[in-house]
Model the fold of this input.
Amino acid sequence: MQLQDRNYQIQGVDVLAIADQFGLPLYVYDADKIIEKIGLLRSSFAGVNLKIKYAAKALTNISILKLMRQQGVEMDSVSVNEARMGMLAGFEPSQIMFTPSGVSFDEIREAIDLGLQLNVDSLSLLEWVGQHYGSSVPVSIRINPHISEGGNIKISTGHADSKFGISILQRPDIRAIVEKYQIAVVGLHIHTGSDFKNADAFLRGADVLFDLASDYPNLKFIDFGSGFKVAYKEGDHITDVADLGRKVSAAFQGFCQQYGRELELWFEPGKFLVSESGHLLVQTNIVKENLTRTFVAVDSGLNHLIRPMMYDAYHDIKNVSNPSGDTKTYTVVGYICETDTFATDRPLPEVRPGDVLSFENAGAYGFSMASNYNARFRPAEVLVYDGAPYLIRQRETFDDLLRGQVDVPVLNSEIIEQQV
Ligand SMILES: *Cc1c(COP(=O)(O)O)cnc(C)c1O
Done:
């Protein structure tokens, strides 16, 4: 028996009431959770000149970007379109870091024209920037420090075979290109993946950059990327942000003294800021007893939340409608014609057709990776802010599925007689 003394609430707002008001399936984000995480980062790094650059790809809704801006957070983008959304949300282009990986020179040019802070991910891009812009475009350089630690290989980016960054072993090549074109290097960057458990890996990455910094006397910032591990289930080993803050701050202060100037310390968290804030609310369509398992099929699938299938991610599930039902074991699946399992053999309070379930920790890489696969609508999105729920994205309609499709008249004739 799982007992709850009151209904499931977000900032005092009943989740079932939100479901009633906005319909299902629905992404609901709790602004307070996001603000809490920002505060935790700030207090952990109180001793340094910290800048938080929200990695917008985790959750790209403009209202979320506005919330970040309101909280004094800046932005990291991986495409010019993301940056444009950031500008619509009110960010200055100079507050937006652009960290492309393998994008076209046309897009790089656009980013430079917009005035974004360019983060260079390859020697060939560095050469190109030098050739076309000389010293006029200040760049940050993304280094691959060849550190990898634990985590899922699909989201790990710091190992030697990763496509990301310029190898630290190419340090002389970077320097040669920079000198040849007098490129203004204002930042050094690492982002080594998404699953660091402790401060040590960060510190090893930091040491690599601190050492490299001696090549570049005009730095403004050192950017440690992200990699904060968040809890998806109880007991998960997560990044201890306070501990990280203490250790990295101390190391950074030491470095700044040696460097001779105080630099800015940047982080680019995505998941850490928004994961916990998000809930994907779905409705139970069918409870199906098979020979070996009881399946719960809901009105959602990998088209709305792909993390379980793509990363084997665990998402806690709450039965919002029947929180004190007897515990039974279910395999929770979606409605997509494809294996789309959310959870296997999961104990849940008894699930009945119509029950509303909530997939927890769905704020990061949930909606932003959603698709229209199987010609399904993507969910609506709601932000609970200051105790009130606001619709921040409408539910899609059939017209949304057709938008952009072109009617070709030659295909509109009657059935053509078949050759036998
Ligand atoms: C994706 C990404 C991040 C954010 O990673 P999280 O694991 O969501 O915190 C930060 N920086 C860069 C360059 C990224 O590509």
In short: Residues 55, 57-58, 76, 78, 99, 191, 194, 225-226, 228, 268-272, 364 surround pyridoxal-5'-phosphate (CB under 6 Å). The chain has a mean pLDDT of 93. The radius of gyration is 24 Å.
